[in-house]
Amino acid sequence: MNKATAQMRPEESGRIAAFGIDLGGTKIAAGLIDTEGSVLASASVPTPATEGAEAVLDAVAGLVDALGAAPEAAGLRIRGLGMGAAGVIDAGNARVLSATDTILHWAGTDLSAGLLARTGLAVRAVNDVHAHGLGEAWCGAAAGKANALLLAVGTGIGGSHLLGGVPQTGAHHVGGHMGHFASPLATGVRCSCGRTGHLEAIAAGPAIHRNYLRLGGDPYVADTRELTALAHAGDLLAIQTLRTGGRAAGIAAGSLANILDPELIVFSGGMTGAGDLWWDAVREGFAAEAIDPLQQLELVPATLGNDAALIGAAGLFLAPQTSKD
Amino acid sequence: MNKATAQMRPEESGRIAAFGIDLGGTKIAAGLIDTEGSVLASASVPTPATEGAEAVLDAVAGLVDALGAAPEAAGLRIRGLGMGAAGVIDAGNARVLSATDTILHWAGTDLSAGLLARTGLAVRAVNDVHAHGLGEAWCGAAAGKANALLLAVGTGIGGSHLLGGVPQTGAHHVGGHMGHFASPLATGVRCSCGRTGHLEAIAAGPAIHRNYLRLGGDPYVADTRELTALAHAGDLLAIQTLRTGGRAAGIAAGSLANILDPELIVFSGGMTGAGDLWWDAVREGFAAEAIDPLQQLELVPATLGNDAALIGAAGLFLAPQTSKD
C-alpha cells in the first residue's frame, strides 16, 4: 500500500474517538466517545466481581467488541481504551496497585497488558474518581478551569484536584483520598479504612444511614434514599443526620478550599441528589470553614451525571490537556 | 559601546546572584544569594510596621543598598529582588492583596512598582510561607522532590504544596492556608481568622500556651518556650498541651498526605525545636490518620533554618524550576 492509499483508509480519515470504561464493583459501563466528549454509543454489564480479574477483563473486552461492532463505530479512528477503575491505580503503567476485596484478585492486575492482549488497543487508566474529575474538567462543570476540585459524595467519598485539567494523582498514586480526612463531626466514628474520625465515616451515603440508626432511628428505614425521603417529609432525626453529613462535607470542602484554592468546587455522587436539605447544610459548613477571600467560591453540582467517569476515561486519549502524555 | 565591549562588562560576566527578602511583621531580613542557594551576605532591620507601607519599602531598599555595597557583591550579576512577604500576595503582579493590621496600610501595596522605583531591580514576590517552601524545595529538605509538602508550625500555621518545586499559590492567591483547616482537636476553639475549630487554634505555638492556661496551667508560665521546658521537666499539663498541639499537627499532616500524596512532608517553624515530646505526638497523629500506603512517608525537619524564606525568595529568580517565569 502506498502512502496516498494509506491516507485514504477510513480509520485514518474518519472521526477520532476512544473507548471509555467505568469499572466499579457492581457494574462495568463502556462508552464510545468522540473528541467533543459526546457518548456515541454505550453499554454495560454487571461486574463478575467474584470470578476474579481475568473474568472482569474478559467482560470489558466483550463490551468493547460489542461497541466496536455498533453502527456508530463505523469509520471512526479509535485512539485507545481509557479506563476509570476502582482501587489504587498506577496511571503511568495502567496497573492496579491495591484494592479492596470487592473484585476478587483485583490488586496487581496489569490493565494495560491484559486489555491490549484482548482488544489490540492502547490502554490508559486512572482511579475512577480521577476519571470522573477529568470528565467534568474536560467537558463538564469544570470545563476551562485551570484549578478545580471535584468532591464525590456517594457510597464512599473521594476527590480529584485538577490542575490544567489534569488530575493530581500524587507520588504514590493515592492522591485524592478526600474521604480519609479528619472531620470534627466524625470523632470516634469508624471509617472504611480501619481508622476513625474520617469524613467518609459520617458524610458518605451509607454513613448517614448508619448514623441515623445509631441515634435511635427506625430500623425499618432501609437506606439513605428512604432516610432522605423521610427527612423531606419532616422527620427530625432524618433531617439531623442528613444535615450532619452535608455539613461535614461542607466543612471538608471549606478546609480543602483553604488549602488548594480552586476556582470552583464540583460536587458529584449520589448525595448531590438529596435535595436542598443536604445542599443547604453543605453550604453552611463551607461558609463556617472557608477563609474570607473564598466565601464566594462556587459550589456546583457535576453536569455529566453517570457518564462522567467513562467520558473522563476516554479523555485520557481525547482531552487536550491529558491526551499528549 | 559595541557588542564585544558589552559582553566584557563585569555585571555581565560575573557570577549570577539575587537579593532575597524575608519580610515579616517584626523583622525584615535580606540576603544576597548565589545560584547554589548560598547566602553570600545578609542583614536585617526591625520592620517599621507602625509607619506604614512606604516606610517598610524604604527599609527594604536600605537593606538592598547596604548589601549591594558589601564586598561580597563585587562583580556579581544581580538578576532581581525576590521577596517573601506576610499577607496574601498576588505572585503574578508582586502585589499585597490583603493582610492583617500587623503592618499599617500593607494591603494594596504594589511591591513591584514601589521597589523598582527605589532599587531599579526587577521584583518578584510570594507569600512568606511559599518562599519558605520554595527555599526548601530548591536546596533544602525537599530538594529534587517532584511533589513535596511544607508545613510551618510556629506563631501561626501555614503550608506550601510544591509541584516540580513550584509553590501552588491557588486561583485566588490564598492556597496553602493549612492552619485554617478543621481539626478534631480544636472543636469550638477560636481561630485567628475569626472562625472556630481550625488547626492553628490548637497547634500553633501561642495556641498551645493558651490551651495550657485555659486548662488551669500556671499563669506565670509566660509563653510556649517556658511551657516546653516545663513539659520536658515532667509537668503533666505542659506535656498534655504540647502533645495535643503536636498530635493535631500530625493528624493534619496525615489528612493532607491522603489528599496531596507528597513524596515527603517537611516541618518548619518554631515548634519543630520543641523536642521529642512534640515530634512523637506529630508522628502518632500522622500514623492515626494516614492511609496504609502512606504510613511510611518521611516526616522531616526543614534544613535551611531562618534563611529558608530569603533563600526561597531569591529562588524566584535563581531556582531552575521558578526562574523561567
From TrEMBL, chains A, B:
Q: What is its EC number?
A: 2.7.1.2
Any one GO molecular-function label of the UniProt entry = glucokinase activity
- Keyword field contains Transmembrane helix: no
Tagged with keyword Transferase: yes
The region annotated as signal peptide is none
| InterPro entries referenced in this protein's UniProt entry, alphabetically | ATPase_NBD, ROK
Keywords assigned: Transferase
Highest taxon of the lineage: Bacteria
Family to which the UniProt record says this protein belongs: Belongs to the ROK (NagC/XylR) family.
Cite the PANTHER family for this sequence: N-ACETYLMANNOSAMINE KINASE, ROK (REPRESSOR, ORF, KINASE) FAMILY
In Swiss-Prot or TrEMBL terms, this protein is called Glucokinase
